C-alpha cells in the first residue's frame, strides 16, 4: 500500500463557513506518522470544525484533506476504517456497561472476537473491575478512559482527540496524558485539540496555533520558543502552584489521602 | 447501501432494545396515559355516552391503541435526541459502520417498543371486558394497520429527534398527536358533533383508522374505511420518511 509512506494527515487550503461565519479560512497542516500533533486555539477558533472535517462528519467548502493517504471527501469509507474520533464529550452509552460499550464498538468495526478485544482494553485501561457496571456510574476520569478505550478498538492508525481533558480534574487529566503518550509510543498518530497551553507543551511533538480560521504558527515547542525574545535570567522564588499542592495533598494514587487541617495561627 | 447494513442495524437494534429492557419505565410511562384514559372513559364518562354498541370498552379500544402509539413515539424522539446530544451519534458516524443503520435501528426499536406497549394496553382492555370475535386474519389486519401507523408516526418523531435543542422540545410534538383522537370517532360517534367539528372529525386520519380497526374487531365489513386508513398511513409514512431523511442528510454532511 502506498499509504504507508504518506503523512498520517495532510491538509491543504481547508475552508469552511457556516452561513456568513467563516470558521476555517485556508488551513494547511501536515502530521507525521506516529507523532502527537496539538492544534491549539481559543474557544471558537475552529478546532472542532477541523476535526469534524478530518473525521468525515462535515464536508469542507474548499481545500483537500487526506487521512492515512485517503481523501476525506472521496474516500470517506477508507478514512473511517483508519480513524477514531473521541469527541469533546465522552461519547459512551451510559445505560450499557463498560464492557458492553467496548463490545458494541468492536462489533460495529466488524472485528472477530469482540469479547476478547473488550477484555484486553478493559485490562489496559484498568477498568476490568468496573467493566460490569453501567457507564453512568463511572467518575469523569473513568468515563474518559472508557471513551478513549472505545476509540482504540481495532487499533486505528490515526486518532482524533477533541479537547480530551476539558472538564476533567487534575488527576484524571494526568491519566489521559499518560494514555496519549503510550498511544504515540505504540506508533499511533494522535491529533489533539486543546485550549490548554500546558497540555500542548506536555504532549505534543508539534504544535499548531489556529487563530481566526488560519494556522498562524506551526512547529516544535523549541521552534515556537525561538519565536519569542531570548530568555532573560532572573531569580524568582518558585512558589508551588495550586495544582502541585492539590496533587501532593491528595496523593498520586488518590487512595491514602487523609484530612490535613492547616493551622489557623500560622 | 453498505454491505454491513443488515449486520450493523442488528447490532444497534440490540443496543437500543437493551436500553428498553433496562429502563422498562419507558414502557410503563407510555401505557399509563392511554390506560388512564380508558379507565376514565369506561368507568366515569362511559355510562352517559351512547355509542349504540353493547360494550363501551370495545368501542373505545381502537382509539386508545392509537393514543398509545402517539404517546410511545415521544420516546423514539427522546432516544434519538440523547444519542445526538451525547456525541455517540457522531462516534457511530465516524466509524466504518453503515451510516443509515443508526437511524434504522432507532426506527425498528420504536416499532418493538410500541408493539410491547400495545400488547399491554390490549391485556388491560381484556381485563376491563373488551371482547372480540375476530379471527386470526382480522387480528393480523389490525396488527398490520397498527404497524403501518407506528412506522408513519416514528418517521415523524425522527425529525424532532434529530433537530431538537432540548429534551422537552424533542417530545413536545407528540402532544397534538395524542389529542387528535379526541376530535374523531374514537370516543363518541361523530354524528353528535356540531358542523365544523364534525367535518374535521370525519375527514382526519384517526377516524378512518379507528373505524377500520373497530369493524375488524367486530367482524363487520370494513368498507372503504380500511382503504382510506391505509392511504392515510402510507401517505404520512412517505412524507415523514422523505422529510426525516432530508433532515438526517443535512445533519451528517
TrEMBL record, chain B:
Membrane topology designation: Multi-pass membrane protein
Domain of life: Bacteria
Keywords: Antibiotic resistance, Cell membrane, Membrane, Transmembrane, Transmembrane helix, Transport
Annotated transmembrane regions: 26-45, 57-81, 102-130, 136-158, 170-188, 226-244
Pfam families on file: ABC2_membrane
Organism whose genome encodes this protein: Streptosporangium pseudovulgare
Similarity comment: family membership: Belongs to the ABC-2 integral membrane protein family.
Name this polypeptide is given: Transport permease protein
Occurrences of domain ABC transmembrane type-2 (ranges): 25-251
Location(s) in or outside the cell: Cell membrane; Membrane
